[in-house]
From TrEMBL:
Keywords: Hydrolase, Thiamine biosynthesis. This is Aminopyrimidine aminohydrolase. The lineage of its organism: Bacteria, Pseudomonadati, Pseudomonadota, Alphaproteobacteria, Rhodobacterales. Catalyzes an amino-pyrimidine hydrolysis reaction at the C5' of the pyrimidine moiety of thiamine compounds, a reaction that is part of a thiamine salvage pathway. Thus, catalyzes the conversion of 4-amino-5-aminomethyl-2-methylpyrimidine to 4-amino-5-hydroxymethyl-2-methylpyrimidine (HMP). Belongs to the TenA family. The keyword tRNA processing does not apply. It comes from the Bacteria. It catalyses: 4-amino-5-aminomethyl-2-methylpyrimidine + H2O = 4-amino-5-hydroxymethyl-2-methylpyrimidine + NH4(+); thiamine + H2O = 5-(2-hydroxyethyl)-4-methylthiazole + 4-amino-5-hydroxymethyl-2-methylpyrimidine + H(+). Residues 15-214 form the Thiaminase-2/PQQC domain. Pfam families: TENA_THI-4 (PF03070). Its EC number is 3.5.99.2. SUPFAM superfamilies: Heme oxygenase-like. CDD domains: TenA_E_Spr0628-like.
Amino acid sequence: MRATDHLCQLAAADWKAATTHPFTTELAAGTLPLSKMRWYLAQDYQFIDGFVRLLASAIAHAPSLADSVPAAQFLAVITGPENTYFLRSFDALDMDEAARNVPPAAATRDFQDLMAEAAASGRYELMLAVLVVAEWTYLSWATPVNPPRNDLPFWFAEWITLHAGEGFEGVVEYLRAQLDQVWPTLSAPAQQEVETLFIRAVALEYAFFDASYAACPQS
Ligand SMILES: Cc1ncc(CN)c(N)n1
């Protein structure tokens, strides 16, 4: 069995909850209240900041140039089309500076801490554990709803297309393959640390969607 399949199985219940969440089901149906989407976007843009630093750390720790190239190309997607997706969505959803720059919620802070910890560890396998969860869970919820309904506004539709399709499948396969490759070289305690971090990351993905779905209950 692939190491990443083993890790996914360890977190099976939270994995299922995170990848079939009503937040993304309603996003794909176009029925997600905009107040919840605004909350999510403002929080997730703060997540992206830590994510970019983590991905850059993984690039710096990849065993060879060839191992780093797909991650470097993905970094350009995050800081290019994904970054402008956020900025265009903020504008289209009338989110002014105050609405964009809200304090981080507990779910956001927990994720920022996890990513900062993985980046600071200096250990490639721990960085990969968090990156694999962040991208594989998104591929898992977005794939069944891709292509998006053609009547969806771009702030819903593009959040699906950014996380599904051939290019993104390649990113997830690359990240998984990197972790699969390093796994057998790790000691048993080091493998356990990867398992613990992976499980924690899946729980945080679930918590992030839960917090977003619970936000702004009046509107
Ligand atoms: C919380 C979270 N996790 C994952 C992703 C996918 N890049 C994201 N945008 N936000």
